[in-house]
From TrEMBL:
Pfam families with a match to the protein in the record: AAA
UniProt organism field: Batrachochytrium dendrobatidis (strain JAM81 / FGSC 10211) (Frog chytrid fungus)
Domain (ATPase AAA-type core): residue spans on this chain: 139-261
Lineage: Eukaryota, Fungi, Fungi incertae sedis, Chytridiomycota, Chytridiomycota incertae sedis
Protein known as: ATPase AAA-type core domain-containing protein
InterPro entries per UniProt: ATPase_AAA_core, P-loop_NTPase
MF annotations from Gene Ontology: ATP binding; ATP hydrolysis activity
Highest taxon in the source lineage: Eukaryota
Length: 473
């Protein structure tokens, strides 16, 4: 093999590095650093500053000449795409499977709840990245919707003007590149250390159009990720007029970020924060009012995750959606009809502030605290003196923490509503498939409900366990 050399210039230093046998970008970086320090030590006085990431990016912009060829892959055409539209006043955004395939995100159609940070990220990408050409970083903990929002934004770009390249980085697998160009979508893998292939992918587009690249799933603790990042940085610097770059980072902060480097690179970052309690509650209420069929589809899309808490949460939402739309029919352990609760609207309830209650009609409430202990719903009928607690559960057993019921009943009695409790019901609602297995645990503090007609030792006898049909038929 003929010798290959890389010319590196930094400040007043110029040197030549033999890269004939290098196969990994980290080897080139180490050689640059080593040669730079060697030159500084033996040839010249120490410069005023050490080489930064920016210097190394510039120095490595011609590194592809020294790379050995590895396995290559070809583009795989996936589908044709329609441009999606964005409404800044919308509360939902639908992202279908054609866009999601091969991106490293969900393979199921997504209906995204547009919490405020969704619109903030759209605004950041439009105003900062697209309009003003900044190098965009989007940071935040996993599960905050950074990636899906970025892909949603990409789906709204005018395909007559923009080419989109989506690079998803895995921890243990090869990066996958997705190209959205015109009305077509295609993908291919970028095999290990084949950075020259990545440069080819980045450069081989319709040059009459602008080009935006998204690096998704970036973490700074993996050399493969850093290799891709540096290659994209070098690509961006070649033409900042027509090129854009966004890094969607699976971290809450950038490692050793420096203000002067950010200014030099024209880099701006957006922090996406975890869901607030009010965000979660608003999302739940929106899903409920879209109907039980939507909840079932959401449950089907998430059930493969094997998260029992998520399964229970979905069942609870489906219960409220069913109650809101059609009413709920309940059955006992022998499959006999127990009760039918007619279709009803329901209100949110601050446990510490009771609203005015009608004298003649019962009202359903959902506690506004998403993790309220003891119960998920309350039915209050002031005229009948009825208090009905409902706990919806997807498990085989459920705790019976009397303190939560007792605390609520005391506050209700002491509230301005002058609510006289004459009938207390505590009902556990489970999926019909749990008829032979579901049990309520022993009460945590027996005897706390004696003031409300439940004698010590009778708690489990008075609790009702019923079952609901239609959830997973």
């Amino acid at each position: 093999m003929p010798k290959r050399y890389l010319n590196v210039e930094y400040d007043t230093i110029s040197t030549e590095i033999d890269v004939t046998d290098f196969e990994d970008l980290s080897d080139v970086q180490d050689a640059i650093k080593s040669e730079w320090f060697l030159c500084c030590h033996w040839c010249l006085p120490s410069p005023s500053r050490q080489p930064t990431q920016t210097d190394l990016f510039a120095a490595g912009s011609t590194l592809t000449a020294g790379y050995k060829k590895r396995r290559t892959s070809e583009w795989e055409k996936l589908s044709t795409l329609a441009q999606l539209s964005y409404d800044p006043n919308s509360t939902i955004f639908k992202l279908d499977t054609n866009y999601l395939a091969k991106t490293g995100l969900s393979t199921q159609k997504l209906i995204l709840y547009c919490r405020p940070t969704f619109h903030e990220q759209f605004s950041f990408l439009r105003e900062k990245v697209i309009d003003n050409g900044v190098l965009g970083w989007i940071l935040g903990p996993p599960g905050t919707g950074k990636s899906t929002t970025a892909l949603a934004f990409a789906s709204t770009l005018d395909k007559n003007d923009w080419v989109v390249t989506w690079i998803h980085l895995y921890i243990d697998c090869y990066p996958v590149c997705v190209r959205l160009e015109g009305n077509s979508k295609k993908s291919q893998e970028i095999y290990d250390s084949n950075i020259d292939k990545l440069f080819d992918i980045l450069h081989k587009v319709d040059e009459s159009k602008q080009h935006i690249v998204f690096i998704d799933g970036y973490t700074s603790n993996g050399q493969k990720h850093i290799d891709v990042q540096q290659a994209c940085y070098s690509w961006l610097e070649e033409d900042r007029e027509k090129r854009r770059l966004v890094v969607v980072c699976s971290m809450s902060s950038r490692y050793k970020a420096k203000l002067e480097e950010d200014m030099l690179l024209n880099l701006k970052q957006l922090n996406v924060y975890s869901w607030k309690e009010e965000d979660q509650f608003a999302g739940v209420m929106l899903a409920i009012k879209k109907g039980p069929d939507l909840i079932r589809k959401l449950a089907k899309a998430t059930r493969h995750d094997g998260n029992p808490s998520m399964d229970g949460w979905m069942l609870e939402m489906w219960f409220f959606a069913s109650l809101y739309y059609d009413g709920v029919k309940l059955f006992d352990e022998n499959d006999n009809e127990f009760q039918t609760w007619p279709a009803s609207n329901f209100k949110t309830l601050d446990i510490n502030a009771f609203p005015a209650l009608p004298e003649n009609n019962g009202v359903w409430f959902k506690p506004n605290k998403w993790n309220q202990g003891g119960f998920d719903a309350i039915f209050l009928d002031k005229g009948k003196g009825l208090v009905r607690f409902v706990q919806v559960t997807d498990g085989d057993t459920h705790s019976f923490k009397i303190k939560y019921f007792h605390s609520f009943l005391l506050m209700l009695c002491q509230s301005p509503q002058s609510f006289e409790i004459t009938c207390l019901e505590i009902i556990f609602v489970a999926d019909q498939k749990k008829r032979s297995t579901f049990k309520v645990a022993e009460p945590s503090v027996p005897g706390m409900l004696t003031d409300f007609g439940w004698r010590l030792g009778e708690e489990l006898d008075k609790v009702k366990v019923v079952f609901i049909k239609g959830w997973c038929d």
